[in-house]
Amino acid sequence: MIPVASHQHYPARIAATRLWRWFAVVLGTGLVLLMAPARAAERPPARVARVAVSLDVQTNGGPRSDGERPPPGGGIVRARARYFLARSEAETRELWLLNYAESLRRAPEGLDELQTRAMFDGPFRPGRLDVLAVEVDGKGSGWRRAGPRRDLVVEIPAHTTVVTVEYRVVVPRKYWPFGCSRGRCSLDGAVAPLPSVPARGGIRLAAGGRVIDPVVWSVVRARLDRRETSTWYASRSPLRPPRPLRRRDTLLVVIDAPGSALGLSAYPSVFWGRGWQASRDVVAGTYVTVLDTEPRPPGRWPHESRAQIHRDRIGRVLAIAGESISLSAHRGMTRLPDQAAFVVVGPLRSTVASMHPNAVVVSDQAYELFPSERLLKFHDVVIARACLEQLATAWVVGRHSPSVDGWLGGMIGFALTGEWERGRSLQDEFAQDILAKLTFMPAVDRFLYSGQASFSSAYFRGSEDAGALRDHPLLFSHGLPRGRRIHEKLRDLLPGRALERFYDQLIRDPDQDPQRLAESAYGYGLDWFFDQWLGPYPLVDYTISDVRSQRVGGGYAHVIEVVRDSNVAFIEPVQVLVIERGGEAHHLIWNGDSAGPNDDATADPRRARHRFRLHTKRPLKVVRLDPRFRLHEASRLGLASDQRGDNFDPRFNNRRPAKPRFLYTGLGLNLAASEFARATTSRARLNAVSGFAAFAGGRQRDLRRLATMRLFTDRVTAVGLGAGMNFYFLDKVNRRRRRLRLRLAFVGSSLKGANLDERGGVRLSQQIGLSDDTRRYSFWPEQGHRVSLFGDTHQVVLDGTVMRQHVRLGAGWRQLWRIAHGHVVAHNLGLQFVTPIASELEFRSLLRVGGIGGLSAYLADEAFGRALASGQLEYRHVYTSNLRVNLLHAAWWQHVSGAAFVGASTVSSCASYSGWFDRGSWFSQVGYGVMADLRVLGVTPQLIRLDVAVPLNDRWRPRECLGRRFPGYIAEAQGLPVRDVGSLLTSFAINLTFTQPF
């Protein structure tokens, strides 16, 4: 018998057992390490001083050369790059080259349809870098692909001076910065594998990041489709292209000389395409060239007229570039004599303008807005910022580590953008300020609170450049921020004059350490500041957790409590605006620290709380946290009861009391055009038209509850009014909606008479519905589903008494399957039942097979039943996404899409559920729809859809329903003889709608 340890000795035995286990683990690990082969020490990095590149560009329509054929709408670049090392070392090293061409190897996840449209011109096609050969001083060398970015790592033997890489870049059909669209291409950072060094930043910067190491670049030869005569080396001869540019000319543009005094840049810029329009100016000794895709209009800036179709984009860009150069020169950022500056306009969709080391890229959709200077200035500011950031980056590049130079130039450029705005006397206003009184409009509400709009980042305040992806060559390989964040956070710390002195000293002597300069202006150490901000932005949520007021003497005493919850410990100043009922405003500041001095970011807890104490003469009207929208907040879950709870908008609790929200959510019109045209009476024509006006009310940014009201008319309703309450649950689908909705509604409607139902009346309906909707974008969704269950009860009052009662139950499943971007298969399955309650049914109570929302090839009055099962299948596809049709400035027509559809339904008899799924109960259709996707006022989306549907069944087969014989009764209801029903049953149906059917 094995003795059992006594209870008092059991803990000691456990401790001894654990000690022996740890000893065994340590001993085993040591033996494994001793027996394993010795690992080679990590090799030191090699630095590059100069790169010489030769390019041979093959377009999709050019002569075919040996090897791979260019992808449709794209191109192939066969190239050789020679890397001249900074110095020869007596030891083996590694040259680490970044691979930007494959920065997007897979279609990115988590983007909504509008963000996807801003990146890809059609289905996703990845770029590719194929390394063909690597030589070191003329001899073959070992190389490998490293990490998830597939960087190129070359082994450098001792005493090596030159590394040569032969490679091929596959340029996909994709919007810029890297890709081809509308016949114009940008090679961007994929011009060659890019020299790099490890990224250095704050304590939370992810390991493995690398930044581009600026060097001297030169493109020694560039050919387009085997012809060098089509190449313009713009940096060498900024005033003379190889030949006069004509509309159909294809030109290869090489810009490889930066404005830097040291001659350093991250990469050269290479573009090719047809139809460039070159315009030039000379500002402060600098040649400014703008390459645009369109000629200048007759009305030129600043004398444009609102009536002209196109803005003078070239004139505006030339003026902004010139003002930027003049401002930078005035601040002391001198440029070399006869230097050139380039702005290239092309198919950039993710932003209005983008800075690159040797050129500024501007979207060809810039200024496609309603022609109001208060709106156009937002695009002006983005272009000015890109120009100033490029000038500032050229001024500081090579003076610090590449990691510092990466954000320092952007920080100076963003600060100078504020000076440029003041020089133009632009108001400090953004979309929230301009549109604050128009939030009742659905387009404005959608624009302000969903962010689903073209170039949305240009219209909103903030301290962070919010982008869907870091797909820029200067950002894709690391987690360091852009300069905007550092400038905004430094502005929170330094007084205005101290901040001006900081930038004056930094621009005057760019070799100075920016951190030491900032500490000198601040008066204290800022290690904590750069440690917390040179890395990923913290996930932080703020809330006004409590506001208490009491009467004290002749005034009021208030305690306002603000709570911060974040995923990491950090310090950030917060502003609170308090407004009394009389209008007097109080600005309160919390430095973000919960205890102790701001000397260590890690010393502050992740949850902090601060109480403001304030005395006022009058009661409080409103308390607003972050009134200028400078904080970058994220939804934080699992908080305590005094936090946001289950509300998923991070800014909802930034205001006490919450601001009410009322808007009309839309005006809708559906027209059954064929039925309308064939109708013989005005009443029948009105039956073919249905419309609605919908309204909603609640609290702004409250994603939990929303009240709705709907005024409508349709074929059985003269006028109807419905009111409902919606409760939302589960995860947030987008910034305006959560996925699970419970809806309760009450509807009252006045029913038409002299139709299929001869008597009118009043109908009262009570509705309940539950739906799970994961579609992120409502206008043209490409993925997600909507599963719904609903039940309705209806009472129809005729002659002052309740004559008819029935219950309707149903379920639906809508699913969208994305094949590729712009190509979607969608289906809609539905099942419905209607049951009378101690009364008889009417035609308006039965379920309909046809009409808009059902099988649109059939008339809505053509087939009825007590039970209905339906299925519809669509294939939606995009023909073109590059239209730029100006519809009198009210909207811009961009996309043309199509939808091939097929549908089938089976319906029971009108008297019972018999006959359901029988052979004679089926109806089917095929059809095709054409869709136009618009941008209203150049910002918010709108859909117009025109469908043609063809019935596939014998429409003349007799059917009985409620004692009437169809289809003849359709003619009788319009006062026609039965024999004339053929004039009403069209061979096809045309329908116009403004939303997707599902």
Structure description:
This protein has 998 residues and is α+β, with helices and mostly antiparallel strands. It folds into three domains: 48-426, no CATH class; 540-656, Immunoglobulin-like (Sandwich), CATH 2.60.40; 660-993, Porin. It is built from 14 helices and 47 strands. It has a 14-stranded antiparallel barrel with strand order 29-30-31-32-33-34-35-36-37-40-42-43-44-47. A six-stranded mixed sheet has the order 5-4-8-2-1-13, with no helix packed on it. A five-stranded antiparallel sheet has the order 6-7-3-11-12, with helices on one face. Helix 3 crosses helix 4 (373-396), helix 5 (402-423) packs across helix 8 and helix 9 runs antiparallel to helix 10.
Lay out the secondary structure.
Elements: H1 10-35, E1 48-59, E2 75-85, E3 93-98, H2 113-117, E4 128-136, E5 139-140, E6 143-146, E7 151-156, E8 162-171, E9 179-181, E10 184-186, E11 194-198, E12 210-212, E13 216-224, E14 231-233, E15 250-255, E16 269-274, E17 277-283, E18 286-292, H3 313-330, E19 340-346, E20 353-355, E21 360-363, H4 373-396, H5 402-423, H6 431-434, H7 442-450, H8 483-493, H9 496-508, H10 514-522, H11 527-533, E22 540-552, E23 555-566, E24 574-580, E25 585-590, E26 607-616, E27 620-625, E28 655-656, E29 660-672, H12 673-678, H13 682-687, E30 689-699, E31 705-713, E32 717-734, E33 737-751, E34 761-773, E35 784-798, E36 801-820, E37 823-836, E38 847-848, E39 864-865, E40 867-880, E41 885-887, E42 891-907, E43 922-936, E44 940-951, E45 959-961, E46 964-966, H14 968-973, E47 989-993
Parallel strand pairs: 1-13, 14-15, 18-19, 19-21
Antiparallel strand pairs: 1-2, 2-8, 3-7, 3-11, 4-5, 4-8, 6-7, 9-10, 10-16, 11-12, 15-16, 17-18, 20-21, 22-23, 23-26, 24-25, 24-27, 27-28, 29-30, 29-47, 30-31, 31-32, 32-33, 33-34, 34-35, 35-36, 36-37, 37-40, 38-39, 40-42, 41-42, 42-43, 43-44, 44-47, 45-46
Helix pairs in contact: 3-4, 4-5, 5-8, 9-10
